[in-house]
Amino acid sequence: MNFKFHDRAHAAALLEKSLTQYRNTLSVILAVPRGGVALGYPLAKSLHLPLDLLMAKKIGHPFNREYAIGSVTLNDVILNEDITDVSHDYVVRESGKIQQDLVSRYQKLMKGKKPISLRGKKVIIVDDGIATGYTLKACLKSLRHQKPSRIIVAVPVAPPESLRRLQSEADEIICLQQPKYFNSVSQYYDHFEEVTDEDIKKMMEALSSHADNPSKIL
User: In the chain, helix, strand, coil percent, each to 5?
Assistant: First the structure.
């Protein structure tokens, strides 16, 4: 039976029960901005793990920007395998612009800090939910290039077909609810407030302060 999470903090508390084996291990939590950071923050505190941001954005088709032909991350460009009607020049131009925007936004949110190295580490990707999973699948392909030892996707809710889409790229998928009839992530939360860039900065600063002085944290 499907149920609603009270808010993202409630969803994180429930997810934590499935992630206890990763507490105090050589692992990194990667949160998808913006909503995913509101889950990644309490999980990073409770599991005693570092938190970083998973920056990604789709590349829209030149004749229909809502139709994704691929995805861009901080390090990679991943194109959908079935795309054949888009020029190489367009892909290079669009992906370059998107990547610049992602790098700029990451630097603003993280105040100039460099991304955490994922080599040899277990990577736990969190978001407040998954809709289609296409962009996330591209992210997982990109992450493989950084040689993590294991990739875990942990989300409160996602439709079964989206999770199946990710199975070939993830080593483990944890999903608390898998509704057959799915309209949007927000419908599974009683409270689904906007997470702002300022909210993200505060959470990341609090974790950084905690790393330096465990007695100080929000």
Answer: 40, 20, 40
